[in-house]
Amino acid sequence: MISATFVFAMQDGISRHLAGEYNAFMVVMVRYWFFAAFVLFLAKARTGSIRPAAKTSQPMFQIFRSLLLTVEICVAVLSFVYVGLIQTMAIFSVNPLIVAALSGPILGEYVGLRRWVAIGVGFFGILIVLQPGSQALELTLLLPIGSAVLFALYSIFTRLGARKDNAETSFFWTGIVGSIFMTCIGMFFWEPMAQSDWIWMGILCVTGVLGHFLLIKAYEVAEASGLQPFTYLHLVFVSVMAMTIFGETLKSTTAIGASIVIAAGLYTIWRERRAASKA
């Protein structure tokens, strides 16, 4: 899981570089082409046919869920460029708290008073990062906020879809729908790319596949609740990369706010795991 978060941090850094030089939609489109090829290969290798992986009783739901992730990736990549890696990931770290808040009304799960308090504390941490009272709230900050909300919705709907479809089916639809959607958009933003950047694009595609492979292997051998705390290392890896490679600075307010959000998130994960063990 730690290796997966490190690989995903590398992916974010490469996306930041490429989207800073070329159109972000084109970068995401090529990334999805490789992703689609990977899910097709995976489905073919496991069952000898793509039909079992593609078979679902809720195709419109799978399309909607997949589009949520596709739009989220586009918004996140744009945020890397216009807001920066550190602040984007600091705000994005509120994602587990949004998931916890939405799991009640959407999934019908019980969220106790203590978890609601933790959610409130986490959102207070985000306010420290944003500093709405000390400076004009820039519109670009809506990008990381939107990314966090979209990914939380994607996570919720993925959990909801798992009630009827297995992980392999959801993974298949995610890659195929995203590839089709991004091709319809990205083809209008195609730009010639330098040969050296095609190498970076290849590495970006490989890190995407490698990250998902490591993630799948991690979930095969451990419970999701036990692995979830390690995802916060993503922010650590991204911050080190942003400061050393892209010259970003870590503001004290960002560090304090992110620490509060992470602490609240870890507490929420612990409470969820404890409730699950009691059940």
List the helices and strands and how they pair.
Elements: H1 2-21, H2 24-47, H3 51-54, H4 59-82, H5 85-92, H6 95-107, H7 113-130, H8 142-161, H9 167-186, H10 195-221, H11 224-227, H12 233-245, H13 252-278
Helix pairs in contact: 1-2, 1-4, 1-10, 1-12, 2-9, 2-10, 4-8, 4-9, 5-8, 5-12, 5-13, 6-7, 6-8, 7-13
Walk me through what this model shows:
The mean pLDDT is 87. Helix 2 crosses helix 10 and helix 5 packs antiparallel against helix 12. The radius of gyration is 19 Å and the shape is globular. The protein has 279 residues and is an all-alpha fold. It has one domain.
Gap from first CA to last CA = 26 Å
What is the helical fraction, as a range of percent? over 70%
Mean pLDDT over the residues: 87
Total strand count, please?
0
Written as H for each helix and E for each strand, in order along the chain, the element string is HHHHHHHHHHHHH
Helix segment tally: 13
Q: Report strand %.
A: under 5%
- What summary fits the major beta sheet? none
Q: What structural category characterises the helix and strand content? A: mainly alpha
- The radius of gyration is 19 Å
- Estimate nothing, just give the exact number of structural domains: 1
- pLDDT < 50 runs, ≥5 residues: none
Q: Label the overall shape.
A: globular
